[in-house]
Design a protein that fits this description.
Layout lengths: L7 H28 L19 H11 L4 H12 L2
């Protein structure tokens, strides 16, 4: 006949080890989700400028479209040419 010992100790030990394993897996998952990937910097997208188009060309286009007035065009053109 088997020894009659406290069988509940085995059940408690098994339950606690299972809970500890689940908690460890959850903690690793949380750490990986929070810190596992690099943060994305919040950077405003820059307008795409076609290759070979100079700043003066872009300024002329903005003036032609009416985005800037004559005074602003002259001020920026002088700044670009005196750099």
């Amino acid at each position: 006949m088997a020894a009659a010992g406290p069988a509940w100790q085995g059940v408690v030990a098994s339950t606690l080890s299972t809970l500890l394993l689940v908690a460890a897996i959850a903690a690793v998952a949380v750490l990986l989700l929070r810190h596992g990937r690099p943060a994305v910097a919040a950077v405003a997208p820059q307008a795409s400028v076609p290759q070979g188009e100079s700043a003066v060309d872009i300024l002329k286009e903005r003036y032609a479209r009416g985005e800037i007035d004559h005074e602003e065009f002259d001020r920026r053109l002088t700044h670009l040419l005196n750099r």
